[in-house]
Amino acid sequence: MTTGHKQPVSVLVVIHTASLDVLLLERAAHPGFWQSVTGSREDSEALIDTARREVLEETGIDTALGELIDWQMTNTFEIFSEWRHRYAPGITQNVEHVFSLKLADRPPIVTAPDEHRDWQWLPWREAAERCFSWSNRDAILMLANSWRSGT
What we know:
By secondary structure, the chain is α+β, with helices and mostly antiparallel strands. Helix content is 24%, strand content 35%.
């Protein structure tokens, strides 16, 4: 049963190539706010299914084309005041579950125009610097560090 409110449980999916080019999306409502795929869980769906759904909705990419990995890592952050109306009264924090999607190459991107106005592939350092979200930046840096260390 749905209440009409978003759940304060979301996913962050860092989409990247083997050479660590990272896909970023620019928010339609906030030009200059660049991010990886994000989205809230719907009903009781498994978080991996939330990740699959959000990637497809926001980019047109079928996660079966790559390797989708659940990092088993969460970030808790304060929900921006301008977005709190989407949540039940009194909800001020969100728990974000981190995933990555490794692709062999750069597939065509089809964004949802009501959510994103542009997209770009960037080398991981540039992508990390461009993100407005600290959790997104940190995930990209962690991805690069694990890739360099071979883990």
